[in-house]
Amino acid sequence: MTPQQQNLVETVRERFGPKSVTTDADAIAPWLSDWRGRYHGASAALLTPGSTGEVSAIVALAAAAGVALVPQGGNTGMCGGATPPADGSALLLSTRRMNHIRRISAEENLAVAEAGVILADLHEAALEQGRRFPLTLGARGSATIGGLVSTNAGGTQVLRFGNMRSLVAGVEAVLPDGSVHNGLPVLKKDNRGYDLNQLLIGAEGTLGIVTAASLRLVPAVASRAVAWVGLETPQAALDLLRAMEARTNAIESFEIVPASALSLVLEQIPGTRAPLAAPQPWNALIEAVASGADDEAPGALLERLLGDALEAGMAVDAVVAASEAQAEGFWRIRDSISEAERTAGVTIAHDISVPIPDMPRFMVEGAAAVESRFPGTLVSPYGHLGDGNVHFHVRAPKGADEVHWYPAHAPEITRFVHDLVVASGGSISAEHGIGQLKRAELERLGPPVRVATLRAIKHALDPRGILNPGKLVTLAPEAPAP
Ligand code: FAD
Ligand code: MLT
Ligand code: ZN
Hints:
Elements: H1 3-16, E1 21-22, H2 25-28, E2 46-47, H3 52-65, E3 68-72, E4 90-94, E5 101-105, E6 110-114, H4 119-128, E7 131-132, H5 145-151, H6 158-161, H7 164-167, E8 168-174, E9 180-182, H8 196-200, E10 209-216, E11 218-219, E12 223-231, H9 234-245, E13 251-258, H10 259-268, E14 282-290, H11 298-311, E15 317-320, H12 324-335, H13 337-344, E16 347-348, E17 351-353, H14 359-373, E18 378-384, E19 389-395, H15 405-423, H16 439-445, H17 448-461
Parallel strand pairs: 2-4, 3-4
Antiparallel strand pairs: 1-2, 5-6, 6-10, 7-11, 8-9, 8-10, 12-14, 12-15, 13-14, 16-19, 17-19, 18-19
Helix pairs in contact: 1-3, 9-14, 10-13
Flavin-adenine dinucleotide binds near residues 70 and 71.
Protein name: FAD-binding oxidoreductase
Organism: Sphingomonas canadensis
Pfam families: FAD-oxidase_C, FAD_binding_4
């Protein structure tokens, strides 16, 4: 620990008590690696402030002493954004103790939640008031509001409700000098210049530490139905989505799953069962909801729409879950894909978007291009087709190992994939952010105006690089990777 870090830790302990910091290496260890286990950092202490005032004081002290801080929520991020640098030059600051829901107003359709509130807990609390927060994802049992805001997370309801940017009505955050931006009051109109709330959303902890957020709620669903559909191609899946959307606005989720992802889940995740009698090349998981008592029952709606799709030859097979347990089972398959991949072997993850109408072609032609350029690999693209965003995951050839194969081959394969994405007018980060995983690629692919502007904003707010150094964008331009 540097003398400055030591000083900071002692001051924090004195001022805010033993709960606010630990230097116990065993207690810190689980928070030093990312979910995929690809980044490993070091931090001599874990700061755990209990309030916005404490975060503000800690950041002010850190700024004065030149001690860098890495904000961390549930540590479920996919880009190494919450992993501290390996040289121990920064201290971890976890929001885990800031886990109060300050208020939920059914009347205003609003929740104000502290940064450390876990998404599943917010879902539950909203439901108790007859409301819901309409953003969900596989990591909902661990991901926090602060992390979701800071990554501008997406998930499986973006189709209808948008990502965090659309759902966050206000942000409270501590800026890199320790001052507090209070953007929690919800104003329908506010034109006092740049939108600071939106600037902090998706900033990955590089511009401020989010301490709370005002979040938009919607009425709880009256009922839902979930279907699993077998399809020949991704184009058929997109055609099906459009055909359904032309007839109803009850479709809330539409996720695409290739045969390769389904079979891996069935093999790796205990208790999962194939939804259809015979495997199909592509699958769609579709959820329809009734928001009010007068809406058509979603089960009957899906039966009717999917019956027509089967008759028209748009889909090959389909089943509507007969019970809530079966519906949960379908979702479990979808939500377990990244877990199954992690267990099974080496996967290179790409979280990409292209214009929605181009995505089916990209999935097929992009996969063929990768598999022919890198023999033995298998591309398994899955996810949020309706948002023009898939997880374009490349599985390593059989026998490849994480320690040798991944560092030797992943950079070249990733550059190849990202070049295809950029050539299609897409983005190399649709929903997970940049973190440290994609920083060099962001620098390489820009565009330069975007990178220069991000850097200028970082310079303006955090000129000494106190918050989350080495993530998203560095203060000085980096030399291109060899
Ligand atoms: P962390 O991982 O702790 O941090 C993520 C980033 O935010 C880091 O840069 C960190 O420094 C910063 N940060 C955290 N808290 C704060 C704060 N209070 N203030 C400032 N910065 C902060 N993501 C999606 O978008 N869509 C999905 O469908 C999806 N599915 C997933 C499924 C699984 C199984 C897993 C493991 C992850 C998935 N993710 C998904 C990724 C992840 O859950 C999200 O990125 C989530 O927003 C991270 O939240 P967290 O609290 O774990 O943040
Ligand atoms: C998902 O949608 O399941 C996650 O965002 C996936 C991932 O890349 O692991
Ligand atoms: Zn996703």
